[in-house]
Every structure is written in C-alpha cells, then in structure tokens.
Specification:
single chain, alpha/beta, about 35% helix
Amino acid sequence: MNLLKSSFSALSLILLSNAISGKDSITVYFFLLDECRICQELAPEINIIFEQYHQEIGFLGLFPNFSSKSTGINQFKEKYHIKLNTRTDYFKKMANKFEATILPEVIVYNETSKSILYRGAINDLFYTPGKRRHFVQNNYLKDALEDISQNKLPAITKSQPIGCYINFNDSIN
C-alpha cells in the first residue's frame, strides 16, 4: 500500500511539473465591455499587465456584447491606451468555449495542453458592482502570470469576477 501511495505521489508530481513548460503557448483572454465602468477602471491594470508579460504570453481582448460597436471599442482603446489586440465575439464563440459570463472576466489558457490555468477577476478592487475598495488586496491575474512565467501552476486558479453580464440574448440584426 505504501509503495502504491508513493508511486501515485511521484506520478502526480511528474504530471504537475509537466503542466507548464517553457514551450507552452499561453494566452490571456480579457472579456470586456467598452461601456462598463469596472472595465474602464481596470484598464490601467490591464495595460500594466500587458506591458509586463506580452513578450512571453499572448493577450487578446474580446468584446462579446453586440452593444460594443467598432467606434465604442476604438474610443475605449484610445481613451484608456489599450495596446493589446482586440476583436468582437458577437457570436459568443469564445465566451461559450470558456463559459465566461462577466465583463471583465479573464481566462488564462494553455493553448498547448488546452487547459485553463486561471479564470476570474483581474484583481479584487471591486467586491460588488459599484462598490470598490480603497486599494487592491489581491492581484489575482498578476500573481497567476508570475507563477506561469516561472513554469509553475498558479497558486490561485479561480476567483469571482465582478462586473457587467455578457448578454447571451442580444442579436446582431
């Protein structure tokens, strides 16, 4: 029994240590809404994270609500100096793939192993829609990306995003 236990533990460590390698392709997906105050307030943090990690990690901003038109998205990017690539997700292909429901919500995805490494909030500045802390206590995304950049699994893999809802009932017509 002890041999089985130690074999299982060794196998678990091997599998976990192989979960992220320097060769893995990692992408951070930001689900955003140009009119959402929380997205607007977190834009500077998105920029800081992008600047810090874009050399080694991919980034993409997705606007799944049809209310986000090209003009609004471009104004959002210009006003908040968003440098990461963005596109719409009106058909909710990516939102459905990752089961995203809140704006802003972030998914850190290992494209190589097809696994989600982190999902949730960028940080804990907001604790409910319209209610914010005076300062950030937990930098969930930064911490996850720091772990990943060291080829470690994130210590925290999930947090509760706070913000606006993705409208799964809106129509392109």
